[in-house]
Specification:
CATH superfamily of the largest domain: CoaB-like
Helix content: 25-40%
Strand content: 15-25%
Number of strands: 19
Radius of gyration: 25 Å
Number of domains: 2
Bound molecules: cytidine-5'-monophosphate
CATH class of the largest domain: Alpha Beta
CATH topology of the largest domain: Rossmann fold
Strand order of the largest sheet: 12-11-8-13-16-17-18-19
Distance between the termini: 31 Å
Oligomer: single chain
Structural class: alpha/beta
Number of helices: 14
Shape: elongated
């Protein structure tokens, strides 16, 4: 491995686990690969390995206390939070994982994580029953949904004499995964436009035709594109979701507004990802006043098609790499492949929607198709799935550009 692959400022959090001795090796490896490492230990960690050992290996004072005047004046927790390019917690105990999931700030390491905007990776280490416990799994789910990277654990012999999943990954395995995560930003300088969420098509001033799209997948894709270094414009229908950090968001309500905003943004884009569940029809006319029950027995609404945004983007002179979505209740693959051709897409991500699947849920699976191939991205939380999808998009985007320029 190249000696500068980890050339980053890394805060290494060490928590109370028998595996804490492995952090000594981890620090050495990180430093060999160019990292500047500052160690933060929990009090429990100090029962397993001495701060002096980790101080000697990192070449820097080890921070433990939140309210220690000396430590705070050297590099306080807020300064440390700003300093770090990455925070890596290895080993991460069940207790630390639970405290992170709940946003606790009652010691230095947890306060630091809460105060930092840098990416966070945790390498869990615990007894296999603690690992399998629903509470631990729910806490990890929460962290992953927030974008925390989970490295491992491995399985095998455990210090408690049992066998199973929960062992800390070996230091080199942690290093390999970190090196991958810290790779150069593959979409730096590229513009990615993403449509997300449902559209609402008004019937009268208080009613509309909408759908069950939560926008979660599109927002997760926007976050993944940002993580890859892109300039991201997210054109969002009416959803209650927080804008991922660093992403430019434009709120719209109707298909017509979404069309207008997409067309305005996409002209200079490299990639367009159409994850919005755009209404296919809208009422021909919108009543000026609320329609009264007493006005009529049966209400007839005349619906007309909306503009197909993604197809319009495909007709542009300078066409970006286009990714569509196909949410279907049946014959998912067939419909998706047809759409790939009729809408002139470069790629389509298909998923089954219905009871507990697809819309408004946190987990999802996707079948992704392009003209020469396909790949299944298995069931995962939408944050992870979006990262996997982004990896695939980046691969195909560069493959297409290289064939076009040769
Ligand atoms: O034809 P269908 O609506 O199933 O196609 C879904 C794909 O087309 C999605 O990528 C969706 O965002 C996009 N679409 C669009 N404008 C529409 C309808 C769908 O961009 N009016």
């Amino acid at each position: 491995m190249h000696e500068t692959v980890l050339r980053k400022k890394i805060v290494l959090g060490v928590t109370g686990s028998i595996a804490a001795y492995k952090s000594a090796e981890l620090i050495r490896r990180m430093k060999e690969l160019g990292a500047d490492v500052r160690v933060v230990m929990t009090k429990a960690a100090c029962q397993f390995i001495t701060p002096l050992t980790l101080q000697t290996l990192s070449g820097q004072p080890v921070a433990i206390e939140l309210l220690d005047a000396d430590q705070e004046s050297a590099m306080g927790h807020i300064k440390l939070a700003r300093w770090a390019d990455w925070i890596v917690i290895a080993p991460a105990s069940a207790n630390t994982i639970a405290r992170l999931a709940h946003g606790r700030a009652d010691d230095l390491l947890s306060s630091l994580c809460l105060a930092s905007e840098s990416p966070l990776a945790v390498a869990p280490a615990m007894n296999n029953k603690m690992w399998a416990n629903e509470a631990t799994q729910a806490n990890l789910d929460t962290l992953m949904r927030r974008g925390v990277y989970v490295l491992g654990p491995a399985s095998g012999d455990q210090a408690c004499g049992e066998q199973g999943e929960g062992r800390l990954l070996e230091p080199m395995a942690i290093i390999v995964q970190l090196a991958q995560l810290m790779m150069p930003l593959k979409l730096q300088g590229k513009k990615v436009v993403i449509s997300a969420g449902p559209t609402y098509e008004p019937i009268d001033p208080v009613r509309f035709i909408g759908n069950r799209s939560s926008g979660k997948m599109g927002f997760a894709v926007a976050k993944a594109a940002k993580e890859a270094g892109a300039n991201v414009v997210l054109i969002a229908g009416p959803v209650h979701l927080t804008t991922p950090q660093g992403v430019e968001r434009i709120n719209v309500e109707t298909a017509a507004q979404m069309h207008e905003q997409v067309m305005a943004s996409v002209a200079s884009a490299d990639i367009f990802i159409a994850s919005a569940a755009v209404a296919d029809f809208r009422p021909l006319s919108v009543a000026d006043n609320k329609i009264k029950k007493t006005q009529t027995d049966n209400l007839q609404l005349e619906l007309v098609p909306t503009i197909d945004i993604v197809s319009d983007v495909a007709k542009l002179e300078r066409v970006p790499f286009i990714v569509g979505f196909a949410a279907e209740t049946d014959h998912v693959a067939d419909y998706a492949k047809t759409k790939l051709h009729t809408k002139k897409l470069d790629m389509i991500a298909a998923n089954q929607v219905g009871e507990g699947l697809g819309f408004a849920v946190d987990n999802n699976a996707l079948d992704v198709f392009w003209s020469q191939g396909s790949q299944t991205l298995p069931l995962a939380n939408k944050t992870q799935l979006a990262r996997d999808l982004m990896t695939l998009i980046i691969e195909r985007f560069y493959a297409k550009n290289s064939t076009q320029s040769t």
